Amino acid sequence: MTPLSENPFTLGVASGDPLPDSVVLWTRLAPRPHEPGNGLPAEGGIAVQWELSEDDAFRRVVRSGTAAAPAADGHTVHLDLCGLEPGRVYWYRFRAERWISPVGRTRTAPRADASVSAARFGLISCQQYDEGYYTPLGHLAREDLDAVFFVGDYIYENAIDARAGARNYTEPLPEFYNHWTHTLEDYRQRYALYKTDAELQAAHAAHPWYVTWDDHEVENNYAGDVSQDNDPVDRFRARRAAAYRAYWENMPLRSPQRPAGPDLRLYRRFAYGRLAQFDLLDTRQYRSDQAYGDGWHTPGPESQDPARTITGDAQERWLLDGFRASAATWNVVAQQVCFSQRKETPGASSRVSMDTWDGYPASRARVLAGAERAGVRNLLVLTGDDHTHCAYEVKKDFDDPDSATLGVEFLGTSVSSGFDGQERPEDWETARAANPHLKYYDARRGYVVVSLDPERVRGDFRTVSGVTTPGAPISTAASFVSEAGAPGLREA
């Protein structure tokens, strides 16, 4: 093919899903990132060289080789690099012809039987491009973290105008972005747009990521094969297939996550020494349709039907089997939508969201009962979606404040979705009164730093003053701790 005349590494590098002896390295070649096809041939592929080093200057290169960037995969590289040392930091980079990529830093997981004294993780979600700059991600890149959990809404499917909405660009974006995503090319280009952001690239290059999706990677509030607007199933499944394909192409995922049409098994499990077991869930692909047509409603026979599921039967069995087999101190469930009960107003007849676990109470009850039966004493749920920071105590009976606390939930706010937000949203007092297990509530943008050790978990809720103009400083708005063996939240 014609030599690459322009830098193809415009979308950065990434790593993810670290195991004790392996990590996935990712890049995507896009010399013209804002053009469909990215300025590359529609067929064939490009050979990409890679290096893995023990130092960031690449004086101690320990592995190197060549990988393919096939046109059929959107010219992406998914290198499942095996035979690595556990609990080690590595640096990596790619080369295509004369062009060299940015340097990425990654880390393998500890051995499964290792005694891990401490670990720190980032929790992020919801980064709508046209609602703000990715200032929190720039700060996240500078945190000392072992890995990052991204729990949904990496992209949004909405049209983006020439000025990129709240970003108010003076140099206009191409007209191509100003329509909703439906085709594979649409979704590929939406990832390309997002990944041109320097702060997103920095966060990927700094840490390995564990990723899962929510709804906007396809369409708002979809449920299995049911679209928000009840499109014909075959048409929606074709859209879902395109979205899933682009998701896999653009994330640091292994080949078992490669989709087959509109199906992609994204739920998966990781051990982090004896300290933690991570269960990453998919609460979109297999769920029952939202009760009462979605939205907020008073619970009733439809939402309380025990046959309803947010995980699907197979994933639920997998999760509960994992609880039973776990010997980890902490069982960490990273997933999309609010797990704890969140009532709109005080009183028994309050409305709740049909899109969260409140709309699937039988699913939640089965998960909590399964955790109890398995002897899980330290359950930690990590969540996104809501564009707010929340800290919840997970109760055996949410309607009884005195019932047993079975775990805690850290719900992280958005990176940019919802524009700047505010410290105390309009329903702050009502939400606190209606949900005594809600210990913290803040609607500014940011992320959570989750620190684990054998004695406790700590959540530091980081916030910025705003994202509609770049450069806001980061601060810790609140910190909460839960002790191992005695779940419950106290301010740190």
Helix-strand category: alpha+beta
Largest sheet: 8 strands, mixed
Radius of gyration equals 22 Å
Strand order of the largest sheet: 12-13-15-17-19-18-21-20
Helix content: 10-25%
Q: Care to count the β-strands? A: 25
Query: What is the beta-strand fraction?
Result: 25-35%
Number of helices: 7
CA distance, first residue to last residue: 59 Å
The averaged pLDDT comes out at 97
- Silhouette: globular
Low-confidence stretches: none
InterPro entries: Metallo-depent_PP-like, PhoD-like_MPP, PhoD-like_sf, PhoD_N, Phospholipid_Metab_Enz
Protein name: Alkaline phosphatase D family protein
Organism: Streptomyces aureoversilis
Pfam families: PhoD (PF09423), PhoD_N (PF16655)
Description:
With about 500 residues, this protein is an alpha+beta fold. Helix content is about 15%, strand content about 30%. The protein has seven helices and 25 strands. The protein has helices at about 135-140, 185-195, 200-205, 235-250, 315-325, 360-375, 430-435; strands at about 15-20, 20-30, 45-55, 60-70, 75-80, 90-95, 100, 105, 120-125, 145-150, 210, 270, 275-280, 295, 330-335, 350-355, 380-385, 390-395, 405-410, 420, 440-445, 445-450, 455-465, 475-485, 485-490. A hairpin with a 2-residue loop joins strand 1 and strand 2 (about 20-30). The model has no long low-confidence stretch (mean pLDDT about 95).
